[in-house]
Amino acid sequence: MKKHVLVVEDDAHIRLGLCDALRAEGYDVTDCSAGSEVIPIFKQRKPDLVVLDIMLPGKSGYELCREIRALKSRVPILMLSAKGQEIDKVVGLELGADDYVTKPFSLRELLARIQALLRRADFAVTPSGTEVPETIGFGKVRIETKALRGVRGKEKFELTPRELKVLAVLHRESGNAVSRDQILNEVWGIEYYGTTRTLDQLIVKLRQKIEEEPGEPRHLLTVHGLGYRLDV
Length: 232
What we know:
alpha/beta, Rossmann fold, Arc Repressor Mutant, subunit A, four-stranded antiparallel sheet, 40% helix, elongated
């Protein structure tokens, strides 16, 4: 089923160009130009993602973001604005926006951000949903999860809570590729606004603890273009 994107932008040139690009990528698109139109359309059409300009006639994007979140909706919101100051971005994120792009923007980057937000929404799992077994074992590795410590052969090591959660997610999906977005959602939470680089750095540290040769891992493997896989 096609994903449905609601585009809210009062600049006709930007709005039409963005709608055409989204339709060319296979999305269903609804668009509007006035803040007063947004909530009725949102309730009726139930979009999968909202692209929301801040400076709008009627109601601002900030007000609309707050109203959408007041509806208990977790639909991804990507805000657009000509403003580039950090405080404007912070306000939008604090009101519940998931991402923020400053005009003028690269259409390719915007489409990539939309795709990433939709992928994360498909794996909207909170950290509390990550179940951690009492022990995790594979190869020469044995981990006591409550103690946050483990052994690899005769080598002892300790884990941080976040390292343990990442390992628990991968162990639960043993043998299957798990996307970076899914891991970030389950471990960091869907409100995480950072980059996947944070996860990649954590994986490097995990390999140093669980792999005999971290540079040539046998268990914690990279799935290029997607994420990671744990082979047990």
